[in-house]
Design brief:
Layout (H helix, E strand, L loop, with lengths): L1 H21 L4 H21 L8 E2 L2 E2 L7 H24 L2 H7 L7 H7 L3 H7 L2
Antiparallel strand pairs: 1-2
Helix pairs in contact: 1-2, 2-3
Amino acid sequence: MLDREITQISYHSLALTTHAMDVGASTPFLWAFEEREKLLEFYERVLEARMHANFIRLGGVAQDLPLGLCRDIVFFTQQFASRIDELEEMSTGNRIWKQRLVDIGTVTEQQIKDWGFSGVMLRGHVT
């Protein structure tokens, strides 16, 4: 499960900051990419692979975790928590971000009903 969580953190932080870059904010992307590198180093220490890590296999796992890895992951998560706050402020507090995203793609309640919104689309438009 630990490797899956690391993967999810890596992918989501990169996806969100790539979106920020698409609307004109490149710094969050660069910061997230730096954090992603740290996460990929954990993979490399376990499996000697940075991409497409294959830790979980039929019947168990590939091998035991290296000594000190869990300690280093805990240290990373303690620092990463403050980095997430910085990335959020840098993105959502950014004047350009707000100009390009606030009130874009809004729909009325009637349009929601007429167009049959459901799931994520419905939840994203409930005010």
